[in-house]
Amino acid sequence: MAALDSVLNDIDKDLDNALERLFAFLRIPSISTDQAYAPHCREAAAWLAADLTALGFETSVEETSLHPVVLAHKPKPGAPHVLFYGHYDVQPVDPLDLWETPPFEPRIATDAKGEKTIVARGASDDKGQVMTFVEACRAHLAMNAELPCAVTILIEGAEENGSQGLPEWVARNKDRLAADVVLVCDTSMWNPTTPAITSSLRGLAYFEVEVTCADRDLHSGFFGGAARNPIHVLSRILADLHDDDGKVTLPGFYDGVRERPPEVLEQWRGLDFTPETFLGPIGLSEPAGERGRLLIELVQSRPACDVNGIIGGYTGEGTKTVIAGKASAKVSFRLVDDQDPQKLAETFEAFVRARIPADCSVNVICYKGSRAISLPFDMPELETARAALQDEWGVPAVTVGAGGSIPIVGDFKRLLDRNTLLIGFGLDDDRIHSPNEKYDLRSFHKGTRSWARILSALGARRGH
Ligand SMILES: [Zn+2]
Question: What NCBIfam families does the record point to (predicted)?
Fold first, then answer.
């Protein structure tokens, strides 16, 4: 423990230098979606590679179909091996006039609550978060001349552009990414004083249903009562998707959905996540969806089905006595655990077709879906990381799900067969992707200390 204490002390003492390094990284306008900034993406990759090389990592900058990735290794035979992933690219900065100071001139500000913040594009998403891990490695190396674990670092430059080129690169370089577990620092804390481990991301399946009855729009005076109305047909299909208890009625829909363990539910019950705090701000008070579930379950660990749009008939001003020839709707499903988007597509189409009367036809379009990501709750690294976070923050880390997805995490599972621990120190008010993005100084400092503890704890694990 003395060794860890000296590492933590070093992080405290070196904070100003760590900030200077982060500021240098933040000054590089590595916007990935705009080709005009491609040289700056390269510059950010080179900056990071130079820093990791100076720390003694075997480092290379490698081409993908878009911006290069930085790959760095620090082997340690016999020790547990972690793969850390993050991104050096940032979102565009417009509207520029809403920034209080230029986005690529980082500064320390004090917010309304008296909290010190680092303000710049990328401060939170994801350069500040990436540097918490790098600084933790730096302190371990400064104090002990080695890291507690074998560490591979993969930092990409196209995350804000759908990670273009990355899955292909990962597939080609599987053997160089071997590790026991993946660590990602690109998520948020539960609140400014409570750390969180994001253990699940919901997947998505998206469909469009177009029902056609007559071969043209009809006059409802001539045909009303005789001609089939596609809006009625479509409405019945959509209404049939849920029962009176808010459950989705598709056969086999809940196959692969798992219950959360009692200790997780217990923790969720203790969170301040109520209809008042969650639905109140959007003008609602009563949870819809499956009856008898916690509100947090409904948005994190249970699947959901929503109609996202519906088109048909006359929707202009005044009246028009028409029976439409066609009606269509867009329907999406949020998926959890092992629900299979492919199987759902088949079930959904069969469900729709079974409700199409004679004389009518239907076209079901299925967009590309994604599976959910969820950690096995008994994975040993989860407990280890949770304990390390509690040591730093003084309160238990919450295990939560997240709404936004990080698609590469699914690829790590699929291509490398490895689970990912998502541990981040961002806050909901960091304004990522918006003007005046910030990262709390406390997130940066205690985030670095947290990684130092997590690396130590993972390195001490036996029988990995
Ligand atoms: Zn990010």
Answer: PRK07907.1, PRK08201.1, PRK09104.1
Q: What is the mean pLDDT of the chain?
A: 94
186 CA to centre of ligand 1 in angstroms: 5
Whichever domain contains 360, its CATH number is: 3.30.70.360
- Amino acid type, 255: D
Query: Residue type for 65, please?
Result: S
**Per-residue pLDDT reduced to its tens digit, 45-89:** 999 999 999 999 999 999 999 999 999 999 999 999 999 999 999
Same domain, 194 and 211: no
Q: Are residues 215 and 233 in the same domain?
A: yes
464: pLDDT confidence band, cut at 50, 70 and 90? very low
CA 7-11-15 angle, 5° bins: 170
Residue 406's pLDDT band, with cuts at 50, 70 and 90, is confident
Tell me, in angstroms, the distance from the centre of ligand 1 to residue 162's CA. 11
Kindly state whether residue 454 falls inside one of the protein's structural domains.
Answer: yes
The answer to whether position 275 is within a domain reads no
Phi, psi of 267 (to 5 degrees): -65, -40
pLDDT in tens, 296-350: 999 999 999 999 999 999 999 999 999 999 999 999 999 999 999 999 999 999 9
- Whole-angstrom distance, CA of residue 147 vs CA of residue 82: 11
95 domain-assigned: yes
Query: Which DSSP category does 90 fall into?
Result: B
- Do residues 240 and 357 both lie within one domain? yes
Helix 127-144, helix 38-54: angle, nearest 10: 20
State the total domains in the chain.
Answer: 2
Q: Is position 341 within any domain?
A: yes
* 78 alpha carbon – ligand 1 mean position (Å): 32
Span from the CA of 87 to the centroid of ligand 1 (angstroms): 7
Q: 326-335 and 304-312: which strand pairing?
A: antiparallel
Do 242 and 120 share a structural domain?
no
Instruction: Report CA(122)–ligand 1 centroid distance (Å).
Output: 9
> How far, in Å, is the centroid of ligand 1 from the Cα of 184?
10
